[in-house]
Amino acid sequence: MIEKINLNNILFLDIETVPEEENFNSLDPEMQSLWDLKTQYQRKDDFTPEEFYDRAGIWAEFGKIICISVGYFTIRGDIRNFRVTSFFGEEKKILKDFNNLLNNHFNQPQHLLCGHNAKEFDIPFIARRMIINQIAIPDKLNLFGKKPWEIPHLDTLELWKFGDYKHFTSLKLLTKILGVPSPKGDIDGSQVAHVFYVEKDMDRIVTYCEKDTIAVAQVFLRLRREDLLIDEEIIHV
């Protein structure tokens, strides 16, 4: 029962990813060929590999992480705060900083990670990029050999599915129907690569990522039938 979980033990998170190179022609010939093979099914005959490259950020083999935002509750008595912070910049440093956070502050058995579709996307993506960057995977992310029901982390998409594994609901839709203030600002996921490579506006991406992290926490509160966070309770650090 999620109502019995101590909110102080949950680390909410969201990541933003982009293609590892700005454009298809920046890939070496072997990677271009591998991208062609990797995306054959998704592209069918509708797109060339080059035309499809703007979606490379969703595959850890061809994308990279540019931001990880995390949030956690601090509840003392009747005072509730939600502290949000972000790791961004060079990918290897992002991953090392996130690794340190998990190892130093969220490494106990009672600690849980929570994201929207995090079990299928965020957590595997982070772990794969850590391997690629030769960073030791922290225990909380080392899920090798575990069956889906043995993974202790929380996922608001999975909680909403209620066992209906063919069902997908976006975070944007879920916040709408649950009466959570919309997390989306002036960009969406499909625009992140353009904002990163062309506009070079990292602050805009960090804001977008943090809004999603807050939204995941809000959805989790709603699933527990608890009061939503108000602006005064959210602290950006």
TrEMBL record:
Keywords: Exonuclease, Hydrolase, Nuclease. This is 3'-5' exonuclease. It comes from Flavobacterium limi. It holds the Pfam family DNA_pol_B_exo2. Residues 62-225 form the Predicted 3'-5' exonuclease PolB-like domain. GO terms for molecular function: exonuclease activity. It comes from the Bacteria.
